[in-house]
């Protein structure tokens, strides 16, 4: 008798390879227990599993990985900011500086023979992110995680854009955590 963490899809459909998912999650959970250093949030975000018939339901595992990423960030203290204190305003300024650049030149480009992300798609989304950092627009963690960039030969290098989007996700998680901590303090009665 085997124990399964997630719903399995039928043998007619493909899902994530059960043993690969279980092994990865076991590794992360043991490391969060302090046995050895946990993987980075980026490694959790970029975890990939083989698609096989009868595997785990993809959406269910992905949702769990999103929550796990936040736990890993907290465990690593990466949300603590510079000098051990969270500084959402400083992080926002750092991101704005990094993301603001000339249109079509914000990230390194893939060679003409290689595929990258469509420049217009990326620049339009980065404009939204910068607008959100300036308080003129709203962008959620889910928006960043699910943004579809079309492939294009000679576009922006995927790794460069993905790294920037990882930093945006980490910032948004910091803001979310700060908002939750503030709300908890307001709910607690004064001593």
Task: Report on this structure.
By secondary structure, this protein is mainly α. The protein has two domains: 14-76, no CATH class; 81-187, no CATH class. 53% of the residues lie in helices and 6% in strands. It is built from seven helices and four strands, in the order βααβααβααβα. It has helices at 18-32, 41-45, 58-76, 88-99, 119-133, 141-146, 158-187, and strands at 14-16, 51-53, 115-117, 151-153. The strands form two sheets. A two-stranded antiparallel ribbon has the order 1-2. Strands 3-4 form a two-stranded antiparallel sheet. α4 (88-99) runs antiparallel to α7 (158-187). It starts with 13 loop residues before the first strand and ends with a helix.
Short description:
This protein has 191 residues and is mainly α.
Layout of secondary structure:
Elements: E1 14-16, H1 18-32, H2 41-45, E2 51-53, H3 58-76, H4 88-99, E3 115-117, H5 119-133, H6 141-146, E4 151-153, H7 158-187
Antiparallel strand pairs: 1-2, 3-4
Number of strands: 4
Number of helices: 7
Counting structural domains, the number is 2
Q: What's the story with the biggest beta sheet?
A: 2 strands, antiparallel
Mean pLDDT: 84
Shape descriptor reads: globular
Query: What class do helices, strands and sheet pairing give?
Result: mainly alpha
Poorly predicted tracts of residues: 78-83, 183-191
**What is the N-to-C succession of helices and strands?**
EHHEHHEHHEH
Widest sheet: strand order?
A: 1-2
Report how far apart the termini are: 52 Å
Radius of gyration, in angstroms, nearest whole number:
19 Å
Beta-strand residue fraction: 5-15%
Helix content: 40-55%
């Amino acid at each position: 008798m085997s124990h399964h963490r997630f719903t399995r899809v039928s043998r007619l459909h493909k899902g994530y390879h059960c043993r690969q998912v279980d092994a990865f999650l076991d590794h992360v959970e043991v490391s969060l227990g302090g046995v050895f250093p946990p993987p980075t949030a980026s490694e959790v975000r970029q975890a990939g599993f083989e698609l096989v018939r009868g595997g785990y339901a993809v959406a269910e595992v992905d949702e769990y990985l999103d929550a796990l990423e936040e736990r890993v960030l907290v465990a690593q203290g990466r949300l603590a900011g510079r000098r051990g204190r969270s500084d959402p305003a400083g992080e926002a300024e750092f991101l704005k500086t990094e993301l603001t650049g000339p249109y079509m030149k914000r990230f390194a480009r893939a060679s003409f023979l290689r595929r990258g992300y469509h420049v217009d798609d990326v620049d339009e989304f980065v404009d939204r992110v910068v607008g959100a950092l300036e308080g003129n627009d709203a962008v959620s963690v889910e928006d960043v995680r699910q943004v579809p960039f079309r492939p294009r030969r000679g576009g922006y290098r995927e790794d460069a854009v993905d790294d920037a989007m990882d930093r945006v996700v980490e910032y948004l998680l910091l803001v979310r955590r700060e908002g939750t901590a503030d709300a908890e303090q307001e709910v607690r009665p004064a001593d």
